[in-house]
Amino acid sequence: MSKLLKYRESLNLTQEELAAKSGISIRTIQRIEAGTEPKGYTLRALAKALHIKETELLKSPVNEVVHYQLIKLINLSSLPFIIFPPMNIFAPLLIMYFKKENNLMVKQIASLQILWTLVSAILFFLSPFLNRIFSIDFPFILIVAATACIINICIIILNAISIDRQGRMCIFLNFSFL
């Protein structure tokens, strides 16, 4: 029995009623109940309509072994490339790909680095304008770059410690770029 079918029946909803409530077609609901895993908008709309978390509709991995030491290594692989931001994304992705460690925590590590790189780049490019607006005599861009590096180091180290001690990330996103 699929998870969607179980939740739908627990709320005494027909497929037609769930389709109307979620805005998802009846055919899509039938496919998901037959075994297709929902993704993206469909997953969000169904979870919202059923008043459950999105993860509750996803299939549970059967006996998935989590290699915490490898995940910690993937997380720490960003550290040597703090000064060259694109590599702090590619290093974990390369290790993930070659070691075939493709789980949610590793995707979160890469997504966190992607988001932090984007935020840092935006702040980095805005810093000359802020320097001019506030009439600061020293190069504000250096402060922004140093602060971005220090914050990223803290994120990586905090997550490594948390993965080591608790088996989960301390700082994570509620979404994934991957």
Automatic annotation (TrEMBL):
The keyword Protein transport does not apply. It is a multi-pass membrane protein. InterPro entries: Cro/C1-type_HTH, Lambda_DNA-bd_dom_sf, MamF_MmsF. The keyword Thylakoid does not apply. One of its GO terms (molecular function) is DNA binding. Residues 4-57 form the HTH cro/C1-type domain. Keywords: Membrane, Transmembrane, Transmembrane helix. The chain crosses the membrane at residues 78-98, 110-130, 136-161. It comes from the Bacteria. It is found in: Membrane. Its main location: membrane. This is XRE family transcriptional regulator. It comes from Chryseobacterium phosphatilyticum.
